[in-house]
Structure prediction request, 184 residues.
Amino acid sequence: MSMKTDAELIRAASADSDAFAALYRRHVRAVHRFFSTRAPSSAVGELTAETFAQAVLSLRRFRDEAQGSALPWLYGIARNLLRRYHESERVETVARRRLGMPIRSYDLDVDDSNARLDAERLSPTLAAAIDELPEAQRRALQLRVVDELAYAQVANSLGCSEVAARIRVSRALGTLSRILKGAV
Prediction:
Protein backbone atom coordinates (compact mmCIF):
# COMPACT_ATOMS: atom_id res chain seq x y z
CA MET A 1 0.00 0.00 0.00
CA SER A 2 2.93 2.34 0.49
CA MET A 3 3.22 2.72 -3.28
CA LYS A 4 -0.36 3.95 -3.68
CA THR A 5 -1.19 7.64 -3.76
CA ASP A 6 -3.29 9.14 -0.99
CA ALA A 7 -6.19 9.44 -3.44
CA GLU A 8 -6.01 5.71 -4.16
CA LEU A 9 -5.88 4.91 -0.45
CA ILE A 10 -8.93 7.09 0.19
CA ARG A 11 -10.89 5.40 -2.59
CA ALA A 12 -9.99 2.01 -1.10
CA ALA A 13 -10.59 3.10 2.52
CA SER A 14 -14.37 2.81 2.41
CA ALA A 15 -14.00 -0.97 2.00
CA ASP A 16 -10.50 -1.52 3.42
CA SER A 17 -9.54 -0.24 6.87
CA ASP A 18 -5.89 -1.03 6.15
CA ALA A 19 -5.95 1.58 3.39
CA PHE A 20 -7.04 4.28 5.82
CA ALA A 21 -4.49 3.04 8.38
CA ALA A 22 -1.77 3.51 5.74
CA LEU A 23 -3.03 7.05 5.05
CA TYR A 24 -3.04 7.75 8.79
CA ARG A 25 0.53 6.50 9.26
CA ARG A 26 1.64 8.53 6.27
CA HIS A 27 0.29 11.86 7.57
CA VAL A 28 -0.23 11.67 11.34
CA ARG A 29 3.10 13.34 12.15
CA ALA A 30 2.41 16.27 9.82
CA VAL A 31 -1.06 16.84 11.27
CA HIS A 32 0.31 16.53 14.81
CA ARG A 33 3.02 19.12 14.00
CA PHE A 34 0.35 21.42 12.55
CA PHE A 35 -1.53 21.41 15.85
CA SER A 36 1.56 21.49 18.06
CA THR A 37 2.40 24.98 16.82
CA ARG A 38 -1.17 26.29 17.02
CA ALA A 39 -2.89 24.72 20.04
CA PRO A 40 -2.08 24.02 23.69
CA SER A 41 -0.13 20.80 24.15
CA SER A 42 -3.02 19.33 26.15
CA ALA A 43 -5.27 19.53 23.06
CA VAL A 44 -2.85 18.44 20.31
CA GLY A 45 -3.46 14.68 20.56
CA GLU A 46 -7.22 15.06 20.69
CA LEU A 47 -7.29 17.47 17.74
CA THR A 48 -5.04 15.17 15.72
CA ALA A 49 -7.27 12.18 16.41
CA GLU A 50 -10.40 14.19 15.62
CA THR A 51 -8.91 15.26 12.28
CA PHE A 52 -8.59 11.65 11.19
CA ALA A 53 -12.00 10.76 12.61
CA GLN A 54 -13.53 13.56 10.53
CA ALA A 55 -11.54 12.36 7.52
CA VAL A 56 -13.03 8.87 7.85
CA LEU A 57 -16.52 10.35 8.04
CA SER A 58 -15.95 12.48 4.95
CA LEU A 59 -14.08 10.09 2.65
CA ARG A 60 -16.74 10.57 -0.05
CA ARG A 61 -16.17 14.33 -0.06
CA PHE A 62 -12.47 14.04 -0.84
CA ARG A 63 -11.54 15.74 -4.10
CA ASP A 64 -8.11 14.97 -5.52
CA GLU A 65 -6.93 18.54 -6.12
CA ALA A 66 -3.28 18.03 -5.18
CA GLN A 67 -2.05 15.35 -7.59
CA GLY A 68 -2.92 12.44 -5.35
CA SER A 69 -1.95 13.98 -2.00
CA ALA A 70 -4.50 14.08 0.83
CA LEU A 71 -2.41 16.39 3.00
CA PRO A 72 -4.09 19.64 1.85
CA TRP A 73 -7.48 18.03 2.50
CA LEU A 74 -6.35 16.90 5.98
CA TYR A 75 -4.98 20.38 6.71
CA GLY A 76 -8.36 21.83 5.70
CA ILE A 77 -10.11 19.56 8.20
CA ALA A 78 -7.48 20.43 10.81
CA ARG A 79 -7.92 24.19 10.23
CA ASN A 80 -11.68 23.90 10.70
CA LEU A 81 -11.24 21.90 13.91
CA LEU A 82 -8.66 24.38 15.19
CA ARG A 83 -10.97 27.31 14.44
CA ARG A 84 -13.83 25.61 16.30
CA TYR A 85 -11.52 24.73 19.20
CA HIS A 86 -10.33 28.33 19.63
CA GLU A 87 -13.87 29.68 19.26
CA SER A 88 -15.08 27.25 21.92
CA GLU A 89 -12.24 28.23 24.25
CA ARG A 90 -12.99 31.92 23.69
CA VAL A 91 -16.71 31.44 24.43
CA GLU A 92 -15.94 29.42 27.58
CA THR A 93 -13.45 32.04 28.78
CA VAL A 94 -15.95 34.87 28.26
CA ALA A 95 -18.62 32.88 30.09
CA ARG A 96 -16.30 32.15 33.02
CA ARG A 97 -15.35 35.82 33.30
CA ARG A 98 -19.01 36.88 33.22
CA LEU A 99 -19.81 34.42 35.98
CA GLY A 100 -16.74 35.41 37.97
CA MET A 101 -15.34 31.90 37.78
CA PRO A 102 -11.58 31.40 37.90
CA ILE A 103 -9.94 30.43 34.64
CA ARG A 104 -7.85 27.36 35.37
CA SER A 105 -6.53 24.36 33.61
CA TYR A 106 -7.75 21.12 35.10
CA ASP A 107 -5.35 18.97 33.13
CA LEU A 108 -3.46 16.43 35.17
CA ASP A 109 0.15 17.50 35.59
CA VAL A 110 1.95 14.23 36.29
CA ASP A 111 5.26 15.92 37.12
CA ASP A 112 3.52 18.23 39.59
CA SER A 113 1.68 15.29 41.15
CA ASN A 114 4.92 13.35 41.55
CA ALA A 115 6.63 16.39 43.08
CA ARG A 116 3.78 16.70 45.58
CA LEU A 117 4.06 13.03 46.51
CA ASP A 118 7.83 13.41 46.99
CA ALA A 119 7.27 16.52 49.10
CA GLU A 120 4.76 14.70 51.30
CA ARG A 121 7.15 11.80 51.76
CA LEU A 122 10.05 14.10 52.66
CA SER A 123 7.99 16.48 54.81
CA PRO A 124 9.03 15.06 58.21
CA THR A 125 12.70 14.97 57.15
CA LEU A 126 12.48 18.51 55.81
CA ALA A 127 10.85 19.79 59.00
CA ALA A 128 13.60 18.19 61.09
CA ALA A 129 16.28 19.64 58.79
CA ILE A 130 14.78 23.13 59.05
CA ASP A 131 14.78 22.82 62.83
CA GLU A 132 18.55 22.15 62.69
CA LEU A 133 19.26 25.43 60.88
CA PRO A 134 20.65 28.39 62.83
CA GLU A 135 17.86 30.83 63.75
CA ALA A 136 19.06 33.56 61.33
CA GLN A 137 19.11 31.15 58.38
CA ARG A 138 15.77 29.60 59.33
CA ARG A 139 14.12 33.03 59.55
CA ALA A 140 15.68 34.19 56.24
CA LEU A 141 14.48 30.99 54.54
CA GLN A 142 10.97 31.45 55.97
CA LEU A 143 10.73 35.03 54.71
CA ARG A 144 12.17 34.35 51.25
CA VAL A 145 10.81 30.91 50.35
CA VAL A 146 7.62 30.50 52.36
CA ASP A 147 6.48 34.13 52.57
CA GLU A 148 7.91 34.83 49.07
CA LEU A 149 9.34 38.22 50.02
CA ALA A 150 11.89 40.03 47.88
CA TYR A 151 15.45 40.03 49.24
CA ALA A 152 15.16 43.74 50.09
CA GLN A 153 12.13 42.96 52.28
CA VAL A 154 13.90 39.97 53.86
CA ALA A 155 16.89 42.17 54.69
CA ASN A 156 14.62 44.84 56.15
CA SER A 157 12.80 42.28 58.32
CA LEU A 158 16.06 40.78 59.56
CA GLY A 159 17.80 44.13 60.06
CA CYS A 160 20.71 43.22 57.79
CA SER A 161 21.99 44.09 54.33
CA GLU A 162 20.46 42.52 51.23
CA VAL A 163 23.73 40.69 50.58
CA ALA A 164 23.63 39.20 54.09
CA ALA A 165 20.01 38.12 53.55
CA ARG A 166 20.98 36.41 50.28
CA ILE A 167 23.88 34.63 51.99
CA ARG A 168 21.63 33.38 54.82
CA VAL A 169 19.04 32.02 52.39
CA SER A 170 21.74 30.44 50.22
CA ARG A 171 23.38 28.74 53.19
CA ALA A 172 20.02 27.51 54.47
CA LEU A 173 19.18 26.02 51.09
CA GLY A 174 22.62 24.43 50.80
CA THR A 175 22.29 22.83 54.23
CA LEU A 176 18.80 21.55 53.45
CA SER A 177 20.01 20.16 50.13
CA ARG A 178 22.82 18.21 51.78
CA ILE A 179 20.49 16.81 54.45
CA LEU A 180 17.80 15.83 51.96
CA LYS A 181 20.26 14.18 49.55
CA GLY A 182 21.12 11.79 52.35
CA ALA A 183 17.39 11.14 52.93
CA VAL A 184 16.52 10.29 49.32
